[in-house]
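Re: that chain you flagged

S.,

Sorry for the slow reply, it's been a week of failed gels. I finally had a moment to sit down with the sequence you sent. For the record, here it is as I used it:
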Amino acid sequence: MTTDDAFDVLGSLADTVADLLRDVALDHPRIPGSAWFAGLLDSHPRLLVAAIVTFLVLSRLDRTIRGRRTTKDPIRLFPPELKDAARVQAGGRCEMTGPFGRCRRPGEHADHWIPWSRGGASNAANLVLACAPHNLRKSARMPSRMATRGIARRRRRYAPAAACRRPGCRWSPV
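Prediction finished late last night. Pasting the structure tokens below so you have them in one place:
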């Protein structure tokens, strides 16, 4: 099969698909835009089918890229001594934002600021002390830059100068 034969087969396939789409569009005149779609199929059938195929291929490619697995820290849980150090540093309180500044509930959970499932490290730079409602609400979501800046700003008040004030650290298998 030569290249010209392949283009002829693809062209006839595109014409067949365009005819099917035109028939569907004309059979359902109450669907908004169906007459416009049928007219477009009459004027540029191969171009429209090529656009649809391109869209389908690119959406599949996008799903493949977005669904790519990140490398994860082999250690999921924070060590107890790291949790204790974070609890002392935060004064035992949740580090998240409540309705009037810093949350007043006790910090019960050691939370990965960058979620472990998205490549966050299980180290002191990625640990944030959170109350149960805040940790469960955050779940595996990526925090916003504004939330990260807010915690860094609040940590200036209670964290020692040598401590990591800006939360968030990705794991790298170096």
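What I noticed first: Residues 159 and 166 are 11 Å apart (CA to CA).

Talk soon,
D.
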